[in-house]
Amino acid sequence: MRTASIYQPIEAEILQVEESLKAVYKLDFPPLARIVEHVLKQKGKRIRPALALLTAKLYKYDSDSLIPMATGVELLHTATLVHDDTIDDSFVRRGIPTVNSLWNGSTAVLVGDYLFAKAAELVSTTGNVRVIRLFAQALMTICNGELSQSFNTYNWRQTRQHYYARIGSKTAALFSLATESGAVLSQAPEPAVQAAKSYGNNLGMAFQIVDDVLDFTGEEEELGKPVGNDLLHGVLTLPTILFIEKHPEDNTLESIFGDKDKRQNLTRAIELICDSPAIEDSYKIADEFCALARQTLEDLPPNESCRSLVDLTHYVVERKK
Question: Is pLDDT above 80 for 243?
């Protein structure tokens, strides 16, 4: 299943978002324009703006507010990636050199800040106080999630509850911002707004779990970044946590990473986790979150956009990158 077919109900609107993103790097200051263009031309799945648009199409769609909102959500996501790459000292993202590798960390931080500010400006043009507040709350939540991750690197005693809280504060927060805002701006009734929020949260949880599985099982060419990058930096994701749960008295991973050659240790750790039930069990948990997401759609209008939202729950667990 490809996103192009899933996005069919919003095909024209996604193109409008692309044009809106191009306008972001048409700036008077050439150095900033070049860097922002470099970042935004690394085209991803656009799943976050698609979620806002598909949700809005369930009710009273208004392009004047939805296109800026959808663009703002994508810019917020992009800003977090620029900052993440700087924090992790990553050199490649989507197969393209990162801002911090081409320029420097200080420049990357400022470019990320600029994108945050531009996203906020776009969202403010909706004139909807509730949506503006949701955006601000999501940004605070994402920062909290990033700090939680930073303060817990190489903490081998993290539980899956800690992990769920962390990804709920990052990926899921942005997904639910997109769906809840789309529902609010389309004047959906409050029960539908809450259903849309729940859908986005559950889909975001599943999306991040699969992302974390692919960090072990994917190919670098497909992922556009090194395999095992999270574990290399001491970030424990669900496959690692499930492996540790199965071996409570055995500190294999901790002892492996106690040695100096982290790259060699990483290869051994990936082999151990991939040869265990942790990968399959992680997919099962992602499936459970997707099932919860589908349940929330049952009381929403069963139109073409709703069917695309259902299809996204299948795409999320089937994707390879």
Answer: yes
